[in-house]
TrEMBL record:
Keywords associated with the record: ATP-binding, Nucleotide-binding
UniProt xrefs under InterPro entries: ATP-grasp, ATP-grasp_PylC-type
KW Chaperone (keyword) present: no
Protein name: ATP-grasp domain-containing protein
SUPFAM superfamilies referenced in this protein's UniProt entry, alphabetically: Glutathione synthetase ATP-binding domain-like (SSF56059)
Superkingdom field: Bacteria
Species assigned in the record: Aeoliella straminimaris
TM region positions: none
Any one GO MF annotation of this record: ATP binding
Segments forming domain ATP-grasp: 226-281
PROSITE patterns: ATP_GRASP (PS50975)
């Protein structure tokens, strides 16, 4: 199968597809050198219409998307008319990004979802969230009396551990593939508050406060609701906050391949894109949830100031810029990847590798 993969950054999904034996053509905002070395990769402008034109010129058997495309259902509808879509139908994409629909769905299904409203709350303890967002962009603490952004809503802030669950669905059923802890508000990544900066997993095996089965049941039920009630198909993700009482609160739904799935692949050994294609084309699902075999993690390192990229070959890197690329302040430099025998070692080693990479890239500061 000749497969097109599109999104803001597609390297992880493209590598998964290549490992599964698919012929891949890719289009994203970076066309980093490790992606371009393994398959045809187009560097695209941040314009969804440009992706539509690109797809129209490709000879492919199907296409799938990664992050941020759920915010462009009109363009996805046009692309689905051009080439076969492997994934959620565009009306499902729209529903998954409508907070009021999610409140109704999860409340009726006894899944916790934070109090949500579309007018500014008078007090604190709320988040203001852009309706069209991904990766934590457009999320901030609400300060009463602040200017009201356009196209936003307010969600009661839930304190706890941010986790992400990965699933695959077909014919109204969903299988939970794995759970990761999200790296958010980690100063050593230089990311902005609430911005996604990486994942570590499997989370359930590392969490001693809860019975693993009890947490898995909560997460599995939420995924089954999306598959059975909304018709979600293929791989998808749900972001949760796990509170101190052990309750998992849904805070976002991502009806497509997600960034944490690369980590799930590493600790389970399963191929996520192969599972996605099997679900979308043949209605097939894995017979059971894959068992973790190790611990793994990834972290995005963001530029604390403008920097010219110089590669450090001793580290395990991905999403690697081209030699000499200028990375503006606040933009992602690359992805650090770690495997370890203990859960606690993963984030520690990611932080160590981030420090080593920064010492190389910012050697002029010494």
């Amino acid at each position: 199968m000749r497969l097109a993969i599109m999104g803001a950054s597609v390297r992880a999904a493209a590598f998964s597809a290549l490992e599964a034996g698919f012929e891949v053509v890719a289009a994203d905002l970076f066309a980093d050198c490790d992606l371009a070395a393994r398959c045809p990769a187009a560097k695209m402008p941040p314009d969804p219409h440009a992706f539509v034109r690109w797809l129209a010129e490709r000879d492919i058997d199907g296409w799938m998307v990664t992050g941020s495309w759920e915010n462009y259902p009109d363009q996805m509808e046009r692309m689905a008319e051009l080439r076969p879509l492997l994934g959620c139908a565009t009306d499902v994409m729209r529903t998954c990004k409508q907070p009021i629909r999610l409140v109704s769905l999860f409340s009726a299904g006894d899944v916790r979802f934070p109090e949500t409203q579309f007018t500014p709350p008078p007090g604190s303890g709320w988040l203001v969230k852009a309706i069209s967002s991904a990766g934590g962009l457009g999320v901030d603490d609400w300060l009463p009396g602040s200017p009201v952004p356009e196209n936003c809503y307010w969600q009661r802030k839930i304190e706890g551990t941010p986790i992400a669950a990965a699933y695959v669905a077909a014919a109204g059923c969903a299988v939970l593939l794995g759970v990761t802890e999200q790296l958010i508000d980690r100063r050593w990544t230089h990311s902005q508050p609430y911005h996604y900066a990486g994942s570590v997993g499997p989370y359930t095996l590392a969490n001693s406060r809860l019975a693993e089965g009890a947490l898995a049941m909560q997460l599995a039920h939420a995924g089954e609701l999306l598959a059975s009630k909304l018709g979600v198909v293929g791989v998808f993700g749900i972001d949760f906050v796990l509170d101190d009482a052990g309750a998992a609160w849904v805070v976002d739904v991502n009806p497509r391949y997600t960034a944490s799935m690369e980590v799930v692949e590493r600790f389970t050994g399963m191929n996520i894109v192969a599972a996605h294609v099997a679900a979308c084309t043949r209605g097939e699902l894995p017979a059971h949830r894959p068992e973790p075999a190790c611990y793994a993690g990834k972290a995005y390192l963001f530029a604390r100031r403008e920097v010219v990229f110089r590669r450090l070959p001793e580290l395990q890197l991905a999403d690697i810029p081209h030699q000499g690329d200028v990375i503006p302040r606040g933009k992602p430099i690359c992805t650090l990847i770690v495997d370890a025998e203990e859960y606690g070692d993963v984030q520690r080693r990611l932080q160590q590798d981030a420090k080593r990479l920064e010492s190389w890239l910012f050697a002029d500061e010494v």
